[in-house]
Amino acid sequence: MSKAINGEQAAELYIQGKFIQLLNIADDWVDVDEDVKISYFRMRKDEFVFREKPPFITVNGIEVPAPEKNPTPGKYYFVINGSKQDGYERTLYDNSNFNFTLGCWGYERDILQVVAAFNKSFMEVHS
Fold it and tell me: Is 56:64 a contact under the CB 8 Å cutoff?
């Protein structure tokens, strides 16, 4: 979704009021909050990977990454597929043979969150 940025870029966007995330040691994106000082971005700019927080949508009360708005032909994406055991699949977008009905996501970690949110509603029905 969002491209990685360095600490200097993250600090500038944060000052502008943008929401910033950093990639933690567990390989999860976490929100940067007001407890993080701007100097933190600059002092540790080479230790962490930052990004502007991508847009999110709410599915069954769970905030998940929003699908890509403009998929790039020739790039692989993850899409929801109820006929697959995991509930999703990786597919090459070529802009000619199909459109992504429910959207597409560029990262597997994002589609996993989306599938989990969809599954939550089905689990509640069967409980």
Answer: yes
